[in-house]
Design goal:
The chain has 193 residues and is an alpha/beta fold. Helix content is 39%, strand content 23%.
Length: 193
């Protein structure tokens, strides 16, 4: 029986697309649901094009009520993958999916993490600090922003003439290369009989 993923995203969905492409035709792992908190997000168009069910979530229910756990259960979701999802995951969901929620962050945690540290904000902070390298961190999600146990990191050099946009492009290359395969490795390792 396939392991079902729910991919949570808030924006264009480039990482979601790479994850969908990676697992297409895989009999062990499938993207079953796209969860989004932004009605204008490009990831919803990806879900439609790929014929994957999408769920547009509402803040009050996500944080104060049932966190959509009955919906996730209905779709038999085994793992939650955060691919550019900008809301903090509620404690209820973390408790329901212990060590089964994976996030990707566009910096080398523990540096440049926390509330408000996403997208170009992260890249500006790296450049402002004059760091010689940046990268990605794939980690488990806990109750704090960008804090859970690190699974994997990959690095890239920061050039003197890099801008937030050019650094973002380098980071996207790392994200797209590593995120889907690391997800697969973690899931298959954890789900060995």
């Amino acid at each position: 029986m396939a392991i079902n993923l729910a991919v949570f995203a808030s924006g264009a969905g480039s990482n979601a697309q790479k994850i969908i492409d990676y697992f297409k035709g895989n009999s062990n792992v499938q993207v079953r649901l796209i969860v989004c908190n932004n009605a204008e997000a490009g990831v919803l168009g990806i879900a439609l094009h790929e014929k994957i069910t999408s769920l547009l979530i509402e803040r009050g229910r996500f944080f104060k009520e049932d966190s959509y756990l009955p919906v996730l259960k209905n779709y038999e979701i085994d793992w939650i993958i955060l691919a550019g999802f900008l809301w903090k995951i509620p404690a209820k969901m973390i408790a329901a999916y212990p060590q089964k929620i994976i996030n990707i962050h566009p910096a080398l945690l523990p540096k440049y993490g926390g509330k408000g540290m996403y997208g170009l904000h992260v890249h500006r902070a790296v450049l402002d600090a004059g760091d010689p390298e940046s990268g990605i961190t794939i980690h488990y999600v806990d109750e704090q922003y960008d804090h859970g146990l690190t699974i994997f990191q990959a690095k890239c050099p920061v050039a003197k003439d890099d801008t937030p946009d050019s650094l973002a492009q380098k980071i996207h290359v790392l994200e797209h290369k590593y995120f889907p395969q690391i997800i697969e490795q973690v899931i298959l390792k954890k789900n060995k009989p």
